[in-house]
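Team,

Forwarding the record for the chain on the shared tracking sheet. I've put the sequence and predicted structure together so nobody has to dig through attachments.
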Amino acid sequence: EKIKARQDVISQIAGDTKVGLQKELKDEAKMRDFITKLIVQGLLMLLEEKVDVRCRACDDQLVAKCLDAAAKEYTRVVEAETGAKKTCKLSLDKAVKLPPAPADGEHGA
């Protein structure tokens, strides 16, 4: 019973978070900032000189607008944290696209 109650609370928190995030990201400026930070986070894990960014086809324009800012922020963060000057050339992967988001209530594989 305790486990079920805990699962219910976690599900409620996840649902509330999803709704809040969807509301926040309706503003294009906030969405661009969010996407830019996600790209930078990925770059910091990869530490590569050239990266092809994949996204859903419907997000191509938005993601393309974020690439320059993400590359600059990546360079800034690496230099601030390590003193090293590291750059990354970003491009949008036009050949491979991520699948569309699942409809509400569906879960991805």
